[in-house]
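pls design
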């Protein structure tokens, strides 16, 4: 009986430690260091205002909804982006090539892993990739930055991705 109680105490102790280390609240780098999302993405290490320049021309893309890759669950990402453009000609060219821009972003988002886009560094990388890819599509125009207007990751339950019924 003493062995059972001792084993139970040891087990509960390990369970308590394991639970606290795995499910601990993630630290928010913005709150902790007073960084803005801009300074984190740009790698700036100064507190206070970020070096933000408002773009003269913007083009809002319609929302994207794609499935995300995860090991044991199906997740849906709904995201809306705004393109910051350098001039009015860029905006006109983006409108003309909208189908190419959307296709490229859908391919990028649908190949993303949940673990890559669920933290701020992954979102910054996503922003940079979209900027590079869209600039590769535009011939005369230029995207100066990509802005997140909406970014929602939703769990669709605990179905395995390769589960068949």
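designed seq:
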């Amino acid at each position: 009986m003493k062995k059972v109680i001792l084993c139970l105490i040891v087990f509960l102790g390990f369970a308590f430690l394991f639970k606290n280390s795995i499910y601990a609240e993630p630290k928010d780098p913005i709150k902790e260091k007073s960084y803005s999302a801009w300074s984190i993405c740009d790698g700036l290490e100064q507190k206070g205002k970020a070096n933000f320049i408002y773009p003269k021309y913007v083009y809002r893309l319609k929302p994207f909804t794609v499935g995300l890759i995860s090991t044991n669950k199906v997740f849906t990402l709904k995201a809306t982006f705004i393109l910051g453009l350098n001039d009015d000609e860029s905006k006109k060219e983006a409108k003309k090539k909208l189908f190419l821009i959307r296709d490229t972003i859908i391919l990028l988002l649908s190949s993303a892993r949940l673990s890559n886009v669920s933290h701020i560094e992954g979102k910054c990388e996503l922003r940079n990739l979209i900027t590079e890819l869209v600039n590769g599509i535009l011939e005369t125009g230029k995207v100066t930055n990509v802005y997140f207007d909406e970014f929602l990751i939703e769990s669709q339950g605990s179905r395995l991705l390769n589960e068949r019924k």
